[in-house]
Amino acid sequence: xxxxxxxxxxxxxxxxxxxxGHLPKIKEALSVELNGQTRVMEVAQHIGGDVVRCVMLSxxxxxxxxxxxxxxxxxxxxxxxxxxxx
Length: 86
Description:
- There is one protein chain.
- By secondary structure, the protein is mostly beta strands.
- The protein has 1 helix and 6 strands.
- It has a 6-stranded antiparallel barrel.
- The radius of gyration is 13 Å and the shape is globular.
- The chain starts with a strand and ends with a helix.
């Protein structure tokens, strides 16, 4: 899996830098661990310089520069129950 680091947090918008040539795709889910909880964000834009701009799907409080972020290799996934599946 691809590992990046947070370079900027501005409210629900988070910029993450990856190694050259290892950028995750737009709409790919990224995860970050904070106080034992996994928080998820979605890649919204490639902004250049091996940096992606993401939108958090939960609160960004507590996130800071240099935190490690993992690219999941897939889009956002949500568990559903049997009633939803029909």
